[in-house]
Amino acid sequence: MAHPSILGLLVNYKWPILAAALVAYVVSTCVYRRFFHPLASVPGPFLPAVTKFYQSYYNCRYYLQVEKLHQQYGPIVRITPNEVHLTDPANYEKINHVGTKYAKSLNYYNATCVPNSTFGTGPNDVHRIRRGALNPMFSRQKVLDLEGIVQDKARKVCARMQTGIDNNEPVDLHHAFRAVSVDVISDFAFGECYDFLDKDDIGAKFFTMAHGIGPALWAFQQFPSLQSLALKTPPWMAPYLSKPLGYVTGMQMECVRQIEGVKANIEQGKSLGRQNIFTTLLDEENKPDAYQIPTTWQLKDEAYSVLVAAADTTGNAMTVAAFNVLNNGDIYRKLVAELEAAFPDLNADLPFVELEKLPYLTGVIKEGLRLSFGVIGRLPRVVPAPGATFNDHFLPSGTIVSMSSWMMHRDTSVFGPDPMKFAPERWTGSIDEVRRLDANMVPFGRGTRQCVGMPLAYAELYVTLGSLFRRFPKGLKVWRTTEEIMQDYEDFFSSYHPDSSKQEWFRAYVEKSG
Ligand code: HEM
């Protein structure tokens, strides 16, 4: 009887053999990652140590699961096979200081699909050049020069509130605040205001669509090749793949149109009008060495990332601050008393530099920033050579380390037993006390990669909230929204409330007697 050849066996039993090979691969990978990987000794459960599917399972609520892991395993936890999450505030500074060698992790940031932007840049040497070119657009002086733009949008919010009162209709302040951010940044940086504050839906469609593409962040981290595919998708195809993707691509094409227009004006030597992000970045003057003029496509990434970075973060901080002021009569009264003392004339201008001096308003804004968390999830960075030690664990270079504002801003050892309590008084104590709290405040990140839009964000927060509460010193009420709804976030890099287009989402009204 002839013996079957090896080839014959392989052909006859190909499916069982393939299945066995797959099982052997999975088992050996799991055993390696759990017991022999350089991070094997870092505390944490089995599943995140062996597979990223653990993270994908929790998806936009992974930040909550990471918190639970810390409660169980302590200040250092392995949260994916190659990533360690930390909670000690001292580690934040170690990773995120000016001149840091920790680069952004591209596995994570590429998933945001803006690889040519300052925000999406991994290596620090490339980032230094891009950021150097962007900085002058968003300096404090620039913000002060263009403060009129912010004042104009704040007036529109007050006008919408007044119309709501006159018509006895609650006003959607959450979208109004986010619209302030988009209208300010589009006016300030693009030179063409999107005018969401003049639209019936106050830009709700834009925010719903931006929220709609959020899940891609998690899918692209799990399957990076999907992200490359998405970047190669022709714009005309986007609407057929998904409605939100089509909408967002449409907005990006608007940026492309604008960039092409600016380029044509430059070529024809035409006047470019007020400086904007496009004229700034297309101009070789006053740029860091090695700066290269971006292509239209690259510049589109920069513009779109700035728009998105500005929109939700600032809007969320204003929402949290205003909700808590209206939800707490005592805070409302104290804030109004301070504003009335500083600006006795109801119709006076409220300059940003004057508003900044008000301690209670500052406390309200700090609490708004603290409890809206800025970017609620982690900000992953790559450990540089030759590796680093955190909480007595050596992490080789290439390991991803991350920390999050969700944990830093709710640290009970710093913010007391009830860190979710909105308490502006926290920030009105001695300089030392404020410094102690500030050490844990990271809404804008820190160091080299700290938010470039921070001065603009502060101007928006002070001017919009100052104007609203000076203009409406009493009677405004929260319509339906509860604290539970307010404290529920999804992490799509920016934090989103699960269904902020619903009626229950933060609206304010004035109760009319009779
Ligand atoms: C309250 C409002 C804001 C908050 C809480 C906030 C928060 C942050 C955080 C945490 C980062 C660091 C992200 C990271 O490390 O991956 C960041 C970066 C950035 N933000 Fe903001 N942001 C705000 C407003 C703005 C505004 C108004 C702009 C508009 C210019 C802006 C533009 C950017 C850009 C371009 C970056 C990337 C900076 C870099 O990598 O060098 N942000 N922001």
UniProtKB/TrEMBL annotation:
What the entry lists under Pfam families is as follows: p450
Chain ranges passing through the membrane = 15-32
Kindly list the positions annotated as binding heme: C451
UniProt GO MF annotations = heme binding; iron ion binding; monooxygenase activity; oxidoreductase activity, acting on paired donors, with incorporation or reduction of molecular oxygen
Cofactor(s) essential for the protein: heme
SUPFAM superfamilies in the record, alphabetically?
A: Cytochrome P450 (SSF48264)
Q: Which InterPro entries has this protein been placed in? A: Cyt_P450, Cyt_P450_CS, Cyt_P450_E_grp-I, Cyt_P450_sf, Cytochrome_P450_monoxygenase
Say if the entry is tagged with keyword Transport: no
**Any keyword Cytoplasm?**
no
What are the UniProt keywords, alphabetically?
A: Heme, Iron, Membrane, Metal-binding, Monooxygenase, Oxidoreductase, Transmembrane, Transmembrane helix
Q: Which family does it belong to?
A: Belongs to the cytochrome P450 family.
The protein's name is Cytochrome P450
The organism encoding this protein is Oleoguttula mirabilis
